[in-house]
Amino acid sequence: MVRKSIVMDKHLFYELDRFAKKEQRDFSNALRYAAKIGLIALDNPELTIEEIKDILEAQVDNESGKVTELNLDEL
Known about the structure:
There is one protein chain. By secondary structure, this protein is mainly alpha-helical. 0% of the residues are buried. It is 60% helix and 0% strand. It has helices at 10-22, 27-43, 49-63. The chain is elongated. The chain has one domain (10-66).
């Protein structure tokens, strides 16, 4: 992991701090998560934020083995 100092607007800092508390994350993790969502949104303007969050959650579920493939032949 890389450490970098950044300068940000006070209002943005307070919004991120509030977001971190709502999501029960520390400030650094909240900033990383918000930046990740923001970058995905810039690359995929047709997706809503909720759709992006759902996709990220589904990826975690898949990686943890919580999801299995649907076999249509068995239906």
